Amino acid sequence: MPEGDTVWNTARVLHRALAGARLTGSDFRVPGLATVDLAGWTVRESASRGKHLLLRLAGPEGGHRRTLHSHLRMEGTWRAYAPGERWTARPAHLIRVVLRSPAAVAVGYHLHEVALIPTDDEAALVGHLGPDLLGTDWDPAEAVRRLAARPEVTIGEALLDQRNLAGVGNLYKCEVLFLRGLSPWTPVGAVPDLTGTVTLTQRLLAANRGRWTQSTTGSLHRGQTTYVYGRRAHPCRRCGTAIDKRDLDDRVTYWCPTCQPTP
Ligand SMILES: [Zn+2]
User: Fold this and answer.
1) What is the CA radius of gyration of the chain?
2) Which of 22, 29, 56, 251 is catalytic?
3) What is the pTM for the complete model shown?
4) Of 9, 2, 173, 157, the residue nearest 74 (C-alpha)
5) For this structure, is 173 an active site residue?
6) For residue 225, what are the CA distances in angstroms to 109, 118, 171, 244?
7) What are the pLDDT tens digits along the chain (263 aa)?
8) Residue 142 annotated to the active site
9) Cα–Cα distances in Å, from 196 out to 60, 65, 141, 150, 181?
10) What is the DSSP string of 98-116?
11) How far does residue 59's CA lie from ligand 1's centre (Å)?
12) Which of these is catalytic: 44, 51, 79, 180?
């Protein structure tokens, strides 16, 4: 599931493949960008902001600065290939962007919100985000302040709201609430230790930086990587109660009714 750690890892893959390279060609398969040609542009860096990917480019004469923005949502991914290597990650019809350099080809599948904007205007796309859990400027006090500003919202919703803190998706939301013994429907104002919740969330994401398996239990064995996420009807690892699941739109929630009593 693409959450902040996956997006951080993806940004690093793109950075290693393309940073410093002069692009030899590009192919955009998204409306509005089909005629864009980035040949001659240089990739300055690849960065993530919450769940947003920012590929920063400099124009052929160096003057123009553009950012290629993309969002992975549930299904998206970027892969780097050697020139001539077969692109096998996903079916070809899901390809949205191809960037070619002399040493690597980056292929973006199933991307959302693909946009090419002046780098100076990045704030228009990511300026609303709360502190980035994996950013160098991560600020837990500011995240707590933003959460606490709306005490009536449930903690399950508030953790997913990227304006409070950027990078949490359903997996980390479910797992951190289990570890803190909080029902997802606890109002933020009734959470005893918001700082502890925010700090643990950051630790869980940071622990998975640099690997693609997301584990909150410490185990990387299949079927043992989470406490509640993806474990509907399985016994709670702490108390044996069957894990419950609720689907609200795309906001899937797993929880242990015993360890996380409804307030
Ligand atoms: Zn339990």
Assistant:
1) 20
2) 251
3) 0.91
4) 2
5) no
6) 26, 40, 11, 17
7) 788 999 999 999 999 999 999 999 999 999 999 999 999 999 999 999 999 999 999 999 877 999 999 999 888 999 999 999 999 999 999 999 999 999 999 999 999 999 999 999 999 999 999 999 999 989 999 999 999 999 999 999 999 999 999 999 999 999 999 999 999 999 999 999 999 999 999 999 999 998 889 999 999 999 999 999 999 999 999 999 999 999 877 789 999 999 999 98
8) no
9) 48, 40, 11, 18, 12
10) EEE-SS-EEEEES-EEEEE
11) 55
12) 51
Residue 61: active-site member: no
Please tell me the distance between residue 229's alpha carbon and the centre of ligand 1 in angstroms: 13
What is d(CA 226, CA 230) in angstroms, rounded to the nearest whole number? 8
Look-up: residue for tokens 């479910």?
174
The one catalytic residue in 2, 131, 140, 184 is: 2
Is 251 among the residues known to form the active site? yes
Q: Residue 250 C-alpha to ligand 1 middle, in angstroms?
A: 24
Structure tokens belonging to residue 113: 């919100």
Residues in the chain: 263
Q: Tokens 């009734």 identify what position?
A: 190
Residue 47 has which token pair?
A: 């960065």
